[in-house]
């Protein structure tokens, strides 16, 4: 066994812990199907949102970890439940009135409100695939509509008809008495209206593979359960899909966790072992509300990518998946800088530490070199004090700070400079609040100005930080009150960068001019 595999088998990184659970399924014999199957499900009732990205990113991380510890081939299926009836009109799409006319129809039978695809389901599937492709995920796309209509699901649907009573027993335990009276695991698709019907069954005929029911007008129908005439309710569908595909691993949000025994039970009743699962905590918006794809709250994928790289988003997803996290615009700068800190640490680490580093999991072991020599937080402060309207204005400062740097040699830095200007103008500028210095702070600022004016040493972070530190150490206890004053008085922010590094980047004469403005009351 290679050293890398040994270390991976012992790694405490959560993707390796999950991968080891999947591997344990096959410690006696390899899978009969010839591969291990990872699945991620998607309900295409609205536009793809950031939680969907997180699910695929995290599943991919576990798949990569599995490939490090095992030679069994793997597949990842992204399954879209697009035969689901449209129960409500999403609030963030056009042509709401038109959509209302098609309520309860499968999403692939609802016209596309954007007018670009065959149906609303096809449009949302295309959006999902577009962003999965943007991030370079390796996956196979499955549509529930095709899965049901092509006959791929027929064998399991016929088995569900055979074992109808056993599956119903599992489901009825979880339902209120009132719902139990009318519940069926099968949802017929009306042959005339095309709507998904929630109606009780008059008969389930396992021998013929048919169901008989009355529609809303009291007319009796008999339909085959096969060929896309009938779909399963979503909880039975979950377990049946696992059985039909032979799924080995699927993760889902905490809101599904109480259903796990139901999904597992149905899968087993259908004669297939239940997969491993991983329950992650939900993302919250700025107000602590769950992010929802239909209401469009929180941060969308496109919004994150307006202000930062996809790798920083993957880094955010890697962190503590079992902890609920606020996901709003203010988490972006920290995610960018921490991601690059981990990139810089990676080459200096031994193999065990590298396997525990988030960037190994983000890049599947093929970790790039960071060229972000100025932190994103610092670029934001530079945009703030310089009034930069584009990244070229920031490059004027960067070139003086690091003459060897260019957009070509430091692509991360060039990209981040553009993102920083955009982020500053949209989020920082509208909320900046400067304040006037107190008497003690004014005295310290006058001293800092004098020291900077007299300084003739190298324009380097550490040397300048020593000056800032020395001025504050004699006057402030605790010292952080001095740095807080610098940020609030000079930058209009509650927190900021290492100030010596900021002076080196912005320039000594420019910092002196900034202090003069603050002392003259021109900022507050």
From TrEMBL:
<dbReference type="GO" id="GO:0004824">
    <property type="term" value="F:lysine-tRNA ligase activity"/>
</dbReference>
<dbReference type="InterPro" id="IPR002904">
    <property type="entry name" value="Lys-tRNA-ligase"/>
</dbReference>
<keyword id="KW-0547">Nucleotide-binding</keyword>
<dbReference type="InterPro" id="IPR014729">
    <property type="entry name" value="Rossmann-like_a/b/a_fold"/>
</dbReference>
<protein>
    <recommendedName>
        <fullName>Lysine--tRNA ligase</fullName>
        <ecNumber>6.1.1.6</ecNumber>
    </recommendedName>
</protein>
<comment type="similarity">
    <text>Belongs to the class-I aminoacyl-tRNA synthetase family.</text>
</comment>
<feature type="short sequence motif" description="'HIGH' region">
    <location>
        <begin position="44"/>
        <end position="52"/>
    </location>
</feature>
<keyword id="KW-0963">Cytoplasm</keyword>
<feature type="binding site">
    <location>
        <position position="293"/>
    </location>
    <ligand>
        <name>ATP</name>
    </ligand>
</feature>
<dbReference type="InterPro" id="IPR001412">
    <property type="entry name" value="aa-tRNA-synth_I_CS"/>
</dbReference>
<dbReference type="Pfam" id="PF01921">
    <property type="entry name" value="tRNA-synt_1f"/>
</dbReference>
<dbReference type="InterPro" id="IPR020751">
    <property type="entry name" value="aa-tRNA-synth_I_codon-bd_sub2"/>
</dbReference>
<keyword id="KW-0648">Protein biosynthesis</keyword>
<feature type="short sequence motif" description="'KMSKS' region">
    <location>
        <begin position="290"/>
        <end position="294"/>
    </location>
</feature>
<keyword id="KW-0030">Aminoacyl-tRNA synthetase</keyword>
<dbReference type="InterPro" id="IPR008925">
    <property type="entry name" value="aa_tRNA-synth_I_cd-bd_sf"/>
</dbReference>
<keyword id="KW-0436">Ligase</keyword>
<keyword id="KW-0067">ATP-binding</keyword>
